[in-house]
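Input sequence (354 aa), recorded before submission:
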Amino acid sequence: MVQGKTMKVMLHGYFGYGNIGDEAILEALLNELAYNNEAIVLSVNPDYTKRLHGVKAIKERLLSIAFWKNFLLSSRIVFAGGGRYGSPTLRRMSLLILLAKLFRKSVEVRSAGIYSYKWSGEVKVTSEDKLDLLTRLLLYMTFNRLDLLSVRDKSSYVLLKRLGIRNVRLEEDLAIKLRPRYNSVLIELVKKKCYLRPIVGVNLRTLKPEIRATMVSEVAKFLDLILQDGFCPIFIPFGYGSFKGRFFDDDYIIYNEVVNAMTHRLHALRGEYRPSEILSLFREFKVFIGMRFHSIMFAYMMNVPTIALVYDTKVKDFVEAYKWPVKAIDLRNLSAQRLYKAFRELVNNSGIIE
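Predicted structure, token format:
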């Protein structure tokens, strides 16, 4: 059998930030490209990306020799999933697309979330159109020249259609194609912390201080309640806070605040694991309480009864689009009593043995 010619593919996304969701997108895409493709990943932290995925990675520096060497040798550029928020991000993305098309590259935007507002740690559960005229023109000019364009949610689809962009289609988030990779050391580590008690996975995202104060207080009360009931909650970070100033990327900030507000002890997962290994861990959860988009997606993928804390349109769209045992709670209406009621309903309806 004759081997086909290897194609060099450059991958663009929020890679290297220590965000499990974005790394899950990358891991799934690398699996998809495994045959007859050589991937080059643009990463904010190439060493981390190489270590986690075993793939070639370089920094996204348009003035660097390494970027131009790999860019010119690539036949295909893929903007891989993730949320793209606000005019500055979308303008930069459009200019990179324009650059690639000028050099006659095949360019794809795959399963992206396209949001007109800039997100920096607040609650956004309704769509808003805040794009300036320049960004609208750039999106119209570049997105209509793409070789493939897909978005992951209806909010993104509606926005692009309203801008006059053709041939846009809905495609599931790329991370949903990920398959679990069993890690016996990780599984046994978590089981050991819980001593045969039913395990409850927990993920929270760090929002602005004035917003998260109530969340910390109410979640702490709720976790104390389920600990008293004999359950064992384990905090699963999906953001490792790799860079100073990006507090919303560091889930350990809110973990520490919740721990300080609790009477009982809350364990947290530590260490560096591949997204597929974290996905496998979800098999051990009797219930999952999640806030980050991909943490909720992992619970869906493993069919874990879930309480979804809705803080963003992407979470709202996902919970409405997919069906599994899930209770959605708007973060603006959060209370320990509401959490506990939803939790008991999931436990009772799922036949979980306490």
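Checked by second reader. The first helix runs from residue 20 to 32.
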